[in-house]
């Protein structure tokens, strides 16, 4: 692929003929499951011709026959006559599918095409430890059927292991109240709890899947790309719709789609690789707003990093993107920074520049599998704790002192307390701890100083007078003072009483009036700030007497 500055962009064509479905996200139907791309073994191999036994159902919106897994169904929008006909024809199939829908309500009746003779066998699911799946969901038309499918997926895939091997053993799993899964990880005999994200659990249970698609003219990929286009147009309302459509369908761009079964696009990322320049540009990244609190966005970004690094054999090491003010926080959490280490000659003129956006960069670590980053950090923590136990006894928990159960005991030698001496305690440390760190008036003086520093008339007195700007100031003023110096003295506990604090404050006002004429701005600011300070002191009745001194 010849790379260079992108050509002048023509007007985009909107491939979406129906915008009515945009509010709830696109409902995409399978037509040829044999063409689906499944990535396994760390994104290394692409496997096609993966067939699934399914039933077919027709929908009004698309007008095409679609295939889906047994137990999955779409809401029927066809006319009442067709529904009633198929309800009688497929009565036996509906009983096997264990549908609890009310057959008297035509809206809940499900249509099944008995002409599809390949529909009888149940699908065989293969969940590899390296299969990339991401979850993000929009409010979809088939949410009811998706809930029923979850139970089936958990039954079929519940025994599959989707985690990579790490040093240590698993001590069992526990369900949490928020739907998460806590895995107990044992390392050197110590148990470490690890909570899986909801996104990871949905991936493990086969509720969502992850797909890499581009514009190869295949019908199914075009349907997925159209779903992504609708997501981006909804979540990025300030971006021109034609511009989004043009880039999503552009053949030089690659998209990673998050698909919830049966085939509802719920989010994704579109990027453009520049292999010879060692970076990829993230063009669009969006997840349904109703699902952004479940960790889908972070999980999707981890999939992107692992896929790009493996699919391009390590030739792409960096990501660049322009982020708006709302996305900067998200990208920072995913390892992006505003500090661009790539030379401008590498990327300038190649990536799309957006007015008001902030360019950010992420450099991938070659030895990290980002989908296992949390587990790697857990193992590192366990190794560090092991080293600490080798040189310290801090992990030993000792029982409480029984001697104080005797009411006659009032004092004991601290060195006789088990473990205290080993921890490095000395009598000198106890003396330091008993010292009064701050003056009893510290809080009041700090509040008064903060009020003065925030006052509009405080700016002339914020810093010491610069002798280079006012050459004779220190010849006239023998005892200079300013708010910054007062702050330093307060933090150093130089003020034992409020009278000492007030003495320095009055120095500021008197020095200003002594050096400046009463018609000057500085003179007036000093008088205003002095009156303000006195009014604040009166708010503390116990200190009102200092104003008389």
Automatic annotation (TrEMBL):
Composition bias type Acidic residues, residue spans: 15-25
Keywords, ordered alphabetically: Activator, Acyltransferase, Bromodomain, Chromatin regulator, Nucleus, Transcription, Transcription regulation, Transferase
Main location: nucleus
Name of one Pfam family that matches: Bromodomain
Signal peptide boundaries: none
GO CC annotations on file: ADA complex; nucleus
Enzyme Commission number(s) from the entry: 2.3.1.48
Limits of the Bromo domain: 453-523
Biased composition (Polar residues): 56-72
One GO term (biological process): positive regulation of transcription by RNA polymerase II
Sequence ranges assigned to domain N-acetyltransferase in this UniProt record: 208-365
UniProt-annotated location(s): Nucleus
Catalytic activity: L-lysyl-[protein] + acetyl-CoA = N(6)-acetyl-L-lysyl-[protein] + CoA + H(+)
SMART domains: BROMO
GO molecular function: histone H3 acetyltransferase activity
Renumbered residue ranges of the record's region Disordered: 1-178
Compositional bias per record (Basic and acidic residues), positions renumbered to this chain: 31-52, 104-119, 150-162
Keyword Transcription regulation: yes
Amino-acid biosynthesis found in the keyword field: no
Family per similarity comment: Belongs to the acetyltransferase family. GCN5 subfamily.
Protein name: Histone acetyltransferase GCN5
Source organism (scientific name): Magnusiomyces paraingens
Organismal lineage: Eukaryota, Fungi, Dikarya, Ascomycota, Saccharomycotina
């Amino acid at each position: 692929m010849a790379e260079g500055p992108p050509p002048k962009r023509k007007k985009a064509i909107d491939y979406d003929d129906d915008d009515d479905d945009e509010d709830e996200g696109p409902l995409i139907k399978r037509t040829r499951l044999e063409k689906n791309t499944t990535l396994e073994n760390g994104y290394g191999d692409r496997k096609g011709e993966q067939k699934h036994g399914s039933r077919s159902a027709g929908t009004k919106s698309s007008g095409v026959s679609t295939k889906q897994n047994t137990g999955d169904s779409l809401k029927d929008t066809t006319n009442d006559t067709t529904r009633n006909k198929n309800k009688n024809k497929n009565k036996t199939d509906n009983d096997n599918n264990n549908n609890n829908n009310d057959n008297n309500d035509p809206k809940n009746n499900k249509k099944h095409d008995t002409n599809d003779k390949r529909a009888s066998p149940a699908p065989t699911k293969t969940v590899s430890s390296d299969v990339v799946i991401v979850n993000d969901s929009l409010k979809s038309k088939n949410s009811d059927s998706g809930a029923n499918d979850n139970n089936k997926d958990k039954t079929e895939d519940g025994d599959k292991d989707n985690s990579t091997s790490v040093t240590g053993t698993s001590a069992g799993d526990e369900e949490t109240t928020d739907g998460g899964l806590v895995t107990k990880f044992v390392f050197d005999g110590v148990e470490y709890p690890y909570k899986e994200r909801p996104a990871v659990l949905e991936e493990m249970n086969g509720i969502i899947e992850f797909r890499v698609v581009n514009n190869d003219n295949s019908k199914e990929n075009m349907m997925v790309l159209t779903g992504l286009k609708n997501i981006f147009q909804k979540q990025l309302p300030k971006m021109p719709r034609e511009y989004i459509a043009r880039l999503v369908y552009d053949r030089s761009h690659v998209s990673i789609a998050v698909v919830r079964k049966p085939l509802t696009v719920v989010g994704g990322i579109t990027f453009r690789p520049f292999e010879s320049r060692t970076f990829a540009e993230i063009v669009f990244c969006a997840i349904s707003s109703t699902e952004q609190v479940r960790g889908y966005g972070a999980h999707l970004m981890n999939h992107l990093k692992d896929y790009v690094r493996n699919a391009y054999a390590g030739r792409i090491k960096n990501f660049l993107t322009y982020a708006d003010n709302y996305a900067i926080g998200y990208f920072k959490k995913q390892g992006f920074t505003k500090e661009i280490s790539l030379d401008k000659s590498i990327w300038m003129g190649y990536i799309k520049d957006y007015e008001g956006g902030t360019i950010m960069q992420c450099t991938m670590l070659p030895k990290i599998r980002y989908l296992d980053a949390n587990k790697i950090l857990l193992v590192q923590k366990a190794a560090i704790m092991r080293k600490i136990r080798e040189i310290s006894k801090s992990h030993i928990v000792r029982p409480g002192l029984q001697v104080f159960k005797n009411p006659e005991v009032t004092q004991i030698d601290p060195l006789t307390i088990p473990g205290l001496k080993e921890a490095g305690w000395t009598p000198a440390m106890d003396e330091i701890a008993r010292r009064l760190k701050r003056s009893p008036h510290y809080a009041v003086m700090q509040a008064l100083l903060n009020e003065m520093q925030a006052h509009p008339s405080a700016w002339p007195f914020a810093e010491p007078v610069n002798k280079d700007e006012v050459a004779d100031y220190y010849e006239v003023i023998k005892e200079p003072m300013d708010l910054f110096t007062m702050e330093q003295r307060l933090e150093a506990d130089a003020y034992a009483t409020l009278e000492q604090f007030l003495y320095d404050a009055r120095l500021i006002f008197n020095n200003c009036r002594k050096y400046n004429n009463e018609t000057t701005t500085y003179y007036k600011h000093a008088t205003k700030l002095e009156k303000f300070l006195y009014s604040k002191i009166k708010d503390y009745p116990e200190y009102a007497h200092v104003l008389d001194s």
